[in-house]
Amino acid sequence: MSTSAIYEAVIGAVARRVSAKPKHLDVGAGRGQLIALLRERLQADSRACDFHVENFRLHDVPIARTNLDKEPLPFADAEFDVVTCSEVVEHVENPRRLMREAWRVLKPGGTLVMTTPNVLNAVSRVRYLVSGFANLFGPLPAKNDKLYSTGGHITPLPYFYLAHALLDADFGEVELDIDRTQKTSVLLAVLFFPLIALGWLRFWGREERKYGTLTPENRVHVARHFSWRMLVGRTVVVSARKLHAPKAP
């Protein structure tokens, strides 16, 4: 998957929320391409962490070797203005733990930007209908140690559950973006729109009147599952803000 459009979407989300020269942490930094762009565009003072530190290419940026499945982020509380986590949550066993760690290391008012493959676009919905596997989440090899590859996509995370996890971790102002429009999803969304619309109206009515699952806090995030961006976007880009200081013990 091309990552240039994802990085541009992340930079756009960061720039809308953060002033120039932020102190920045990139979780799952890879080779450091996103850090290089944020340093160029926003003069970010960046740090990095990744399990495969041998792949990192920016020799003047400190990087910490971190196993996100077993270890906390190796940084102090309230240290950063912005945390980015691009194409990482689908590779970890416990995304909610990672979000709580991101909250911990952010300053009050700081911003978290996360991206993950969109399992709710039209291509993925059709693929799941016929195969039971979402797009970019196919059968996996057992005992695979290349968790940074597509073969390491172990945690499909539809938008609502990503937003719900952020709210539970005491983030707020959750916003949705996409990296780019996927042409095949546009075609399928138009082709199947009557079916999707009827199914969605039935779903919304039952959840609201019969089950009572729609609340003032979650309605906007449930509704986004039927938005045009969700139906045609390749990658979801979600940003949120840490709204308050750490709670007293």
Please, could you describe this protein's structure?
The structure is a single chain. The mean pLDDT is 94. The chain has a domain at 4-118 and 134-182 and 233-242: Vaccinia Virus protein VP39 (Rossmann fold). 37% of the residues lie in helices and 20% in strands. β4, α3 (95-105) and β5 form a beta-alpha-beta unit. The protein is of the alpha/beta class. It contains nine helices and seven strands.
Short structural summary:
The chain has nine helices and seven strands, in the order H-E-H-E-E-E-H-E-H-H-E-H-H-H-H-E.
Describe the secondary structure blueprint for this structure:
Blueprint: H1 4-17, E1 23-27, H2 33-42, E2 45-50, E3 63-65, E4 80-86, H3 95-105, E5 106-117, H4 122-131, H5 159-168, E6 171-178, H6 183-191, H7 193-211, H8 219-223, H9 228-232, E7 235-242
Helix pairs in contact: 4-6
Alpha-carbon distance between the two ends: 44 Å
Give the class-level CATH name of the domain at 4-118 and 134-182 and 233-242.
Answer: Alpha Beta
Which value, in Å, is the CA radius of gyration?
A: 18 Å
Label the structural class: alpha/beta
The neighbouring-strand order within the major sheet is 3-2-1-4-5-7-6
Annotation keywords:
seven-stranded mixed β-sheet, 9 helices, 7 strands
